[in-house]
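Lecture notes, part 5. Sequence design as translation. It can be helpful to think of inverse folding as translation between two languages: the language of shapes and the language of residues. The source text, in structure tokens, appears below.
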């Protein structure tokens, strides 16, 4: 069973307020999904560069949130976490330096099978409207520029590093992806509640990975 529907229902029940107002970045995701779906149906695979270009130059957090979606499936795509994690780290690093994020050459050529991408796109088109209901401007100080923004980038980058670790253990992809997903959604809509939620989830993720490291150490020695 997919984690995303459960997550959406839980967040919607907890945080939804009447008459939500959507921002351009949030709505832009569905437009990109339609475009990518049309392209995916006409080819065997889609490159990371094509996905990056479709989101445009001003929707980096929408792109980051979208890139997390494969890891909420019951069976995540094998080997994808390393490339996605590295891409997110690069985007965060360049944003922190106030430079326009650009894809490195070794990531441009990385491709996703169209069949797998279509599953992700269908998942997005089904649940994104529900996710939009959760997103709204709350506690905007937590998405402000300056030290707070840098801290949020650091959280996303740290979780992306954990995501990139090729660990054959359940939940080692989905848990850091959830941190990234929540923080990115918060950045899109200046939603401090979702950003704070990502910090709480990060605490549990750190404890989880620490327990894994401790267990691995005991097995080795």
């Amino acid at each position: 069973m997919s984690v995303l529907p459960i997550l959406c229902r839980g967040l919607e029940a907890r945080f939804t307020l009447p008459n939500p107002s959507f921002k351009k970045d949030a709505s832009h995701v569905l437009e990109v999904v339609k475009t990518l779906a049309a392209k995916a149906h006409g080819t065997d695979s889609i490159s990371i560069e094509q996905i990056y270009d479709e989101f445009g130059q001003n929707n980096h957090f929408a792109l980051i949130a979208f890139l997390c979606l494969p890891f909420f499936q019951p069976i995540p795509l094998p080997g994808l976490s390393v490339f996605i994690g590295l891409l997110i780290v690069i985007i965060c690093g360049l944003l922190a330096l106030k430079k326009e994020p650009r894809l490195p050459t070794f990531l441009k050529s990385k491709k996703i099978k169209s069949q797998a991408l279509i599953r992700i796109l269908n998942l997005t088109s089904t649940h994104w409207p529900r996710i939009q209901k959760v997103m709204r401007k709350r506690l905007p100080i937590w998405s402000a520029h300056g030290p707070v923004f840098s801290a949020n980038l650091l959280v996303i980058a740290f979780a992306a590093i954990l995501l990139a670790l090729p660990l054959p253990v359940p939940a080692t992809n989905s848990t850091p992806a959830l941190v990234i997903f929540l923080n990115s959604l918060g950045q899109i809509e200046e939603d401090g509640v979702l950003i704070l939620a990502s910090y709480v989830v990060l605490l549990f993720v750190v404890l989880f990975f620490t327990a894994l490291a401790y267990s691995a150490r005991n097995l080795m020695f």
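The translated text above is only one of many valid answers, since several sequences can fold into similar shapes. DSSP finds ten helices and two strands in the chain.
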